Amino acid sequence: MNSFTEENYLKSIYHLSVTDDESVSTNSIAAALNTKAASVTDMLKKLADKKLINYAKYQGVSLTDEGRAVAINIVRKHRLWEFFLMEKLHFKWDEVHELAEELEHISSAELIDRLDRFLEYPKYDPHGDPIPDRNGCIKTDELKPISVLPINSRGTIMGVREHAPAFLQYLAKLQLTIGIQVHVADIIDYDQSVILKLNNKNSVTISREVAKNILVTI
Amino acid sequence: MNSFTEENYLKSIYHLSVTDDESVSTNSIAAALNTKAASVTDMLKKLADKKLINYAKYQGVSLTDEGRAVAINIVRKHRLWEFFLMEKLHFKWDEVHELAEELEHISSAELIDRLDRFLEYPKYDPHGDPIPDRNGCIKTDELKPISVLPINSRGTIMGVREHAPAFLQYLAKLQLTIGIQVHVADIIDYDQSVILKLNNKNSVTISREVAKNILVTI
DNA sequence: TGATTTTTTTAGATAAGTCTAAATTTATTA
DNA sequence: TAATAAATTTAGACTTATCTAAAAAAATCA
Ligand SMILES: [Mn+2]
Ligand SMILES: [Mn+2]
Ligand SMILES: [Mn+2]
Ligand SMILES: [Mn+2]
């Protein structure tokens, strides 16, 4: 079995490698885990010994197939717990992530499969991220940030790129949550702010920065 | 915050002091936690420093009010998770304890209060043990082992004194589970074996050892 | 009571995970 | 390409929790 710490490293490497694509740097892992580069190097050696990552000094790291399987399983647990917390315990979408950071380390596979069944096999977590199935298969829908939509186009909010509670609370206040249809009414020349019309006729203005972090299907 | 290890020590001391009453010995803690006496001594010093236990060298330990509050909170979490696992995820009563040993360390009080509400404030866990409320109040029903019942008396199974999976599986096979009414049909002179009649007319024979570990109300 | 056994504590090691400071390697840029 | 800057690794130290072996205290009993 892997320790909580090892699991957190593997998960971070996984997330960094899906966004960054290439091999992951020591410093980026340190930043993600809020730790120091020296600590990361120590852990990378250990994970390499366990054949969970490919690591050559100064070269960055990537996950092995086994390491990726471990990481995806933690992501699966994280997202299923998030769904449970929101759906059954009625937490808000900005509250579930922190709690899931603990729950994702509960080890039992039987438990998570039963939770999956109890929740009726949800496909997406409260932030729109896909939940891997028990075989580690994970959907990859093509989502676009609102910032690339042209004036007068429409989209449905399906995810976010940023999970900070403050950001999620802000979106909730604007009623910009998963499943909501938006219509790009205007884009301000000066700073690229986006004016959205919602189905309920409300109109909200968001900065380009915010628009980049909201994902939609067209 | 206390570490998992500290929480496990406090919980063990709590359980040992409710069954044994007086102050708890180093060796009994070591036995309960499957560790060595030397390790226990080290931890006792730390817990005493944190004012969670009363400890004087060679004198055994007892919980302070604060230590007891921490312990009871862990027991609350343990039993609520056990109830969830059985009620919602349909685990068997011999499977839930091990899983709850992990879940009891999830820290959020908000989470456990919401879980409590979701489960509709259960009073007892799957083994008949009372679930402390959020203020740490815990019911203490007077339960008697079947072994003290005279011939021809009746009782309702309300708990067990032994939580080992093998024991619980054995009881389940005999249909001796929580809520079942039993009638003491006979007690064998030779070895004090107890012959029970159930409501469904079935008759089962259990050893005195087993009879001691099944608790009933009359 | 005095000797023996049991219990508990101390001493000293080990392993995991973290840190700071220094050294080394790689990347940048003049 | 040589100097400088940035990234990474190493060295050495610290904390937590654990262990074995030895010492000390308490309990038992002849
Ligand atoms: Mn999350
Ligand atoms: Mn999420
Ligand atoms: Mn239990
Ligand atoms: Mn129980």
A few lines on this structure:
Two copies of one chain form a homodimer. Chain A is an alpha+beta fold and 218 residues long.
Question: Would you give an account of this structure?
Answer:
The structure is a homodimer of 218-residue chains. With 218 residues, chain A is an alpha+beta fold. Among the domains of chain A are: 4-63, Winged helix-like DNA-binding domain superfamily/Winged helix DNA-binding domain (Arc Repressor Mutant, subunit A); 144-217, SH3 type barrels, CATH 2.30.30. Helices cover 43% and strands 16% of the residues of chain A. Chain A contains 8 helices and 8 strands. Chain A has helices spanning 4-20, 26-33, 37-49, 65-87, 96-103, 109-118, 165-173, 208-212; strands spanning 53-55, 61-63, 144-145, 154-160, 181-187, 194-198, 203-206, 214-217. A 6-stranded antiparallel sheet of chain A has the order 3-8-4-5-6-7. A two-stranded antiparallel sheet of chain A has the order 1-2. In chain A, strand 5 (181-187) and strand 6 form a beta hairpin. In chain A, helix 1 crosses helix 2 (26-33), helix 1 packs across helix 4 (65-87) and helix 4 (65-87) packs across helix 5 (96-103). The longest helix of chain A has 23 residues, at 65-87. Chain A is globular, with a radius of gyration of 19 Å. Chain A starts with a helix and ends with a strand. The model of chain A has no long low-confidence stretch (mean pLDDT 96). The A-B interface holds A 85, 88-91, 99, 102-103, 106-108, 111, 114-115, 118 and B 85, 88-91, 99, 102-103, 106-108, 111, 114-115, 118. Residues 79, 82, 97, 125, 127, 129 of chain B line the site of one manganese (II) ion (MN). One manganese (II) ion is lined by residues 79, 82, 97, 125, 127, 129 of chain A. The structure holds a DNA duplex (30 and 30 nucleotides).
